[in-house]
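Lecture 7 notes: from sequence to structure.
We start with the chain below.
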Amino acid sequence: MIIELGHYALVLALAVSLLQAVLPIVGAVRNDRALMEIGTVAAKASFLLVAMSFAALTYAHVTSDFSVRNVWENSHSQIPLIYKFSGVWGNHEGSMLLWMLILTFFSALVAVFGDNLPESLKANVLAVQAWIAAAFSLFILLTSNPFNRLLDAPGEGQDLNPVLQDVGLAIHPPLLYLGYVGFSVCFSFAVAALIEGRIDAAWARWVRPWTLAAWTCLTAGIAMGSYWAYYELGWGGWWFWDPVENASFIPWLAGTALLHSALVMEKREALKIWTVLLAIMTFSMSLLGTFLVRSGVLTSVHAFATDPTRGVFILMILILFIGGALSLFAFRAAHLKAGGLFAPISREGALVFNNLILTTAAATVLTGTLYPLALEAVTGAKISVGPPFFNMTFGLLMLPLLLAVPFGPLLAWKRGDLLGAGQRLFAAVAIGLVAGSAIYYAQNGGPIMALFGIALGAYMIAGSLTELFLRSGLGKVTGAVALRRLSGLPRSVFGTALAHIGLGVTLIGIVAVTAFETEHIVEMKPGMTTDAGGYTLRFDGLRNSNGPNYSEQSGHFVISRAGVNIDEVWSSKRLYTARQMPTTEAGIRTFGVSQLYVSLGDGMADGGVVVRIWWKPMILCIWGGVLFMMAGGAVSLSDRRLRIGAPARAKKQTKPVLEPAQ
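Predicted structure tokens for the same chain:
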């Protein structure tokens, strides 16, 4: 009965979404407050209904109700409870219901916290959100219903995909969807503003918090997926330019550009057309990623579905929303004012340069991802575009941007002094060169470009701190005065510095592990030793054991240095009983920000076992830098100016007007 209630709640959510999609727009056209208010009530109701539906599916998974096809295909009575929960979204149907839950959650947030928005703008935003919700509700109900029953309920399930039975994969999809779907609010704001034909600084002030929240969640989701692939798949890599990885990275690049563009629009009322177009394109790339993952056009460990019918349905959604939004943009663009003027050398100019590089990089990754598919569809020829292409093109594009990042905050608005900013960065350049040389020396040399790559990362870190140093007046005033000046700075200043520091830290990690990592593939028998990264590993033998739904063979290694045992590590191979699917569980030990990575291979006829051992210097800087970026997003979100938003309109006002924020 609970399953049927969940199904019925989803149908009701579709009906409510259709009302929310139509009535508020009619109310905005007629200036009817009662009709516009329906959007607020409907958004809350839609979220509650989808939450009920999601709770019903979760109940079915937790109780192992194998009469539900989705549970039977993706669960097992013996798997740990946490994977029964994550199994809800560890499949196509359940993940789409999670998508719907997050989409309606964001709509409800707009309804609850949008009281300072003009009534017509809020009504149109909620209506656009509802159109998206209605489209995906139809998609779920017609092609991906998670509540389908089996006539003869099996006694046991087929188990969750073993590679998904991991804590990282319990966290990764929700974070990723919070980013993907969070950009829908920016999209809805852009379309709503185009409908009204008015876009100004206050609009940018309303959009920025949603962009920040979505960008922060997407950053966390991509990083979590990267780390999961690193430690779970046993291949020792953290990024492979997999097409589905690219599908999440492209909207991140576009979202980063949107974040900077909205800042210029808020401060200077410039880049209006650019900002609106980026808001549309960022969510469009999220929809494109959804299509790639679920259409069957890509084969990937990350892909959810291979049903062409579903792919066609999502393609229709893609064409409807992207085509509709871009058509509206083309119709309205000529009537939008370009905004304030500024010199090429200015903070606005630096942010425009940033956006040009980021959008070009996004287009490059998109082209490399889709070109093989397009070529095969047209000619039948199959080609592979792999890491060498992306590393070369993307790396060269990013180089000028990374060099320019510390300059932006040091340039004045409207007209800046490039030479003056460069002089203030002399110390950062020196620090970067010293740090790069020190790390290069500590690693006993390597590719000479690694020295400059690490120096660039350290320069970005020092350059990001330079602005705080200069604004505090440290060295020119007493420590107490400098501290008071720092405490008086807007939190968004600290958020920007943290995000840029994180980018520098991540760059150092990428360069160091790429240039200095070592790999050993050896056949080992009990008692044998091998060296890696200055450590000695002794293989002590294999041990067989059983988990709740798998059998496991583990290898035990003792780690020593200078003849002294300092740690141990287990690496194992598992066989999941229900699916008869093997997985590799890498053994990882951390030393500072570096890691020793051990992956157990196949057994040999002479009693030995193949072992792959990597020494990965400074690899944790990759994800440590991401933590700085996430902290930067969170600190910026806490800025009082973003919480207050634009001033509330007067009660007697009959026609809402977007006023500039104070």
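Points to note: Residues 644-662 have pLDDT under 50 and may be disordered. The beta strands are 518-524, 529-532, 535-546, 550-561, 564-576, 581-585, 587-591, 594-603, 609-616.
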